[in-house]
Specification:
93 residues; alpha+beta; HU Protein, Chain A; 3-stranded antiparallel β-sheet; two-stranded antiparallel ribbon; 5 strands; 41% helix; elongated
């Protein structure tokens, strides 16, 4: 399911227009983008937690030449699924 299909699903579920559902979805994504920058991140019950973690600097290797390269430290987004979401994934149809 892509973003457009998800917005259509929201529109049906919320009994609203597709445009309104798309605006709601965009606002939610923007909220996650803003919240992930904080130390607490974003925690959505039943879905999971969006946080950021610091990845340490390390030495890597160029696969084409075999030359060692330095990979700088950086922040990366992480998502940890809630137990309820994990249970849904494990259930068979």
């Amino acid at each position: 399911m892509n973003k457009t299909e998800f917005a259509e699903h929201l529109a049906e579920t919320m009994e609203t227009s597709k445009a309104e559902a798309a605006r709601w979805l965009d606002a939610m994504i923007e909220g996650i983008h803003t919240g992930i920058k904080t130390e607490e991140g974003v925690k959505l019950a039943g879905l999971g937690s969006f946080t950021r973690n610091k990845r340490s600097a390390r030495t890597g290797r160029n696969p084409q030449t075999g030359e060692e390269i330095k990979i700088p430290a950086k922040w990366v987004p992480t998502f940890k699924a809630a137990s309820q979401l994990k249970e849904i994934v494990q259930k068979k149809k």
